[in-house]
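Shall we go through a protein fold together, starting from nothing but its sequence? Label the sequence line and the structure token line clearly, so we can match residues to local backbone shapes. Would you write everything just below, so we can both look at the same thing?
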Amino acid sequence: MIRHAIRLAATCSIVALAQMPVAAFAADAAAAPEAAAAESGEGAPIIVTATKRETDLQKTPIAIAVVSSADLEKQHVQSLIDLASGTVPSLRVATFEARQSALTVGIRGIVPFDANQTARDQGVGVYLDGVYLGRQQGLNAALFDVQRIEVLRGPQGTLFGRNTEGGALSIVTKAPTGEFGGRVEAGIGNYGQRTGEAHIDLPEFNNISIKVDGVYQHQDATVKNPAAGQVGWNYYDRVGGRIQAQWKPVEGFTANISFDKSRDDNTPMYSQLINYNPNNLPVATLAQIAANGGKLPSGYIAPLSPLVQVSGDKRMKTADIGVPQQVSTDRTQGVMGNLSYDLNSDLTLRSITAWRQVDTDQYDNSGGAHRTVFLPNTKFSRYSLSFLDQHQFSQELQLVGSLPNLDFVAGGYYYNEHASENAATPSSNQWNADGTGYTTLSPNVTGTVSSSNQGWSDDSLFLQRDSHAKAESLAAFAQATYTPPMLDQLHLTVGARYTHDKRDGTLDIVNGAAVDYGFHYSKDRFDPMVTLAYDATQDLNFYAKYSTGYRAGGANDRSQTFDAFGPETVKSYEVGAKMMFLDRKVRLNLAGYIMDRDGTQVDFDNVNTDPSSPYFNLHTQETTNAPGTTKIRGVEAELNVHPIDNLSLGASYAYTYTKVPKTLNPFLSTATTSVYQNVFIVYTPKNAASGFIDYSIPVGSRDESVQFHLDAAYAGRQYSFEDENVKAQSSFIVNGRIALADIPMSDNGTKLTVSVWSRNLLNETHIYRLSYANANTLGAYGNFNPPRTFGVEGTVRF
């Protein structure tokens, strides 16, 4: 019955959507006034929509961090990857592999290693105006006119559903105002940076308000490529546009429609050889290799080409080996519709309908000779190509209301996704006999395409894998908060969500051979939540919470047989306090939690780096559910202080402890021997902290001011591979901005702001991703954070 009801509702919503003018949409969450989205002064409320209704952050019994539009501007955040610096300590953002084209997002130690596939999901849900974004690919598109980003920590399985066991990252954009206005900005910076934005609100006409957004962002490579005509590394060129329309034909009814489209051309971060022969193995000579049939003798390490630079802890500015590197391209687009009707003053019915698509062409040649063993006259530099197409449809219905002493929300949800991907890994270069020179291979090959005769043009691809998967999810949810009539300081919230997940997939090609491996996954899930909150005073709020969440099961398309794995589930116990002191000039929020996760999805990798092997460059990965319970424990604190006018200070801290049970390694185990090894949660430092200082000095006779901003973030050492007991380096990133703000340009309110900004102001260098997988054949490789960037920007608001 639930499934039929939700499908019927989805059909009705599509019909309603088709009858309305196609323009733009902002989810109901975006309806909150911009002025309330972030603190504008001492004690001003921060409005959030984590409970599907507008509430004061301090009175919402959920651990939430809010990054406002002002915060994004001060920190020069252009896309989600800029949050990797650690503004919110419990939020971890990193590249998947070294690629900007796909992001790994984690909260509270729930961080997937490899969800960059057709039949796998992340453990943190990313939402755009209330719409779930199903793939890691495309997440780094340019941000549009963002009102705020809500980081909802801990399981959000009741109201947000599947794949939110670590929490949710909710991006809320600005809705049309119905009044003429907007802002236009442009900027330039080092590394050839240039940006341009336009956000225009048009006057309301016939009850229709329209808003248009356009964004352009460009940066040249920060690591140069010696190969002529090829792009370097850490390059991006992003462009996107969106149009929104809000229609209010009658009192109480609002229809928001939007269409957006973005393109992100980018290259990966460069992979550097950190050391050579760290285990001090005997180095094979060219004669020994020749005597062994061109293969590396057992127990020896390959010699190092004299052309290869061992970088140590130094970030390279120019690669030592020139390789073909073209841009990866992510194309995202979507149509979203939000219908809201006030049945009466206390009851609202909403419908959120969305169709979205991601189309990715991946070209990752980040390793050069730093991840491949040198052998005479052999090929090297693994060019990782992947071509993914995904489209999704989602429909959510919400009934939000209030009764005496009771606030509630109930609804249904339907999600349907289709994804397909094929991948190839040709080598792009070839050594000479002694490693003193190399040639660049042709992207086109003649003769029969095979593992040893392949290129990277469309007609020369030797597909390592080709997979297709579809997913369907249906859910019904309800949550209610009861406040006893004689005890209005006490609030009891109870919620639950029932979900039915179904996923099917086929692996058609493995290492160039046609196969027919399929899997079917079908599960039902019930997620409860209970929260008890107590308002000791207007400014002292305490809560205790029990909740559950899960990440859906699936299959690994990097495996040889499309092996399926089960879901992982989490139970969370949390206590928190939200407090205001000193006439609301000090805000202190605390949270402590215990999370127990069962069925942890663990990835084991095996990449063949031996050029003499017929399976050279083949990347095989197996996923298994860890036995027992993964323990995750943490404490979080956020402090904001307004000691005097025009001065704001803030600090945040997150402590995270994780322990995963030893897990069977399928690559080391045999029919007679089972090898269980330690595994680790990636991109989760035990200690992370951030802080900021904002100070403004009024100047001139009107609203002008000089504004100073400084923020810093620290993160301790952290694992970057689940199956490697190796930690990458700690980091300390400082960003800064000085602005002359609100310079009057006319009597009609037009104002100009000119700013100078810098990210990674101190040019700190650290390895954020480190692997010793090739320690016995070459050495460790790593990826470095971006270098210091800076620029000047002008913004006109009217």
Q: What stands out?
A: The helical segments are 2-18, 69-74, 286-291.
